[in-house]
Amino acid sequence: METRIGLLGLFFYYFVVISTVLNIISGEVQSYWEQPFAQPYFDNSTKREITATVGQSALLHCRVRNLGDRAVSWIRKRDLHILTVGILTYTNDQRFQSLHTEGSDEWTLRITSPQPRDSGTYECQVSTEPKISQAFRLNVVVSKAKILGNSELFIKSGSDINLTCVALQSPAPPSFIYWYKGGRVVNYSQRGGISVLTERQTKTSKLVIARAMPSDSGNYTCSPSSSDSASVVVHVINGEQPAAMQHGNSSANSVLINNRSFGHIFGDPLDRWLALVGGSKNLLLSLASSWLCYVLKSISSSFGVDGR
To answer: Nearest CA to 163 among 146, 175, 185?
Structure first.
């Protein structure tokens, strides 16, 4: 009898001890899950404003810690359209896709071939109660190349052709910048004296053709990767360059030349007046030229001289 009572007492003792330990463990586990950091939260180390160029895929990276069994969705803010839930696409526009690697905290929205109309705010949303979300700003731009200087250049034979191209509004350095003459890539082996210096970080490329010849005349095009190309027409001429070619504006300078020819008729005062007026008064000079032509024609007719 005493032995049985002793066994029951020992059993009761261990029962109390084990229950106490289980209660402590249960309380600690419950306390852990009730802590805020154990709930899903966003990793704010990702870039929140993204610039992409037309034609290049745009990637919006959202990182969610402690996701558990919740779902991650991508929402377009301007019309509250659900684009993706998990890795499933919920829009007819198949350019939108959610990328996720099993076991990873990252949920990426990829937009293939983005257009300027895709610019705006997108939200990465987690299905907690209440829901939590993180906003991302996407800017889609058109990257364009620009060749510095005039669109038409006149180069004296024997001088160097020096062209500089810049890729504008390009969020990342271009992977390449090609130069074309006509429809063909500039051929370095065709003749000596051709060099290209491309600086990816500054998004610039310089084409130098030493000792230019008339055969070097043509349409030169700069074409960076993922950018619209730019072109310039180069004329290599023999002898001295006329004033119109030096300024790259044949119509405006022809007015100056024509008016200077009237200076030979009417003497130095007109030349001095033209010098004071300068090339910025081309419209006034054009009107003066027309008036002088009319006067000369009238004078010629009065004397019976054919004014043609």
So the answer is: 146
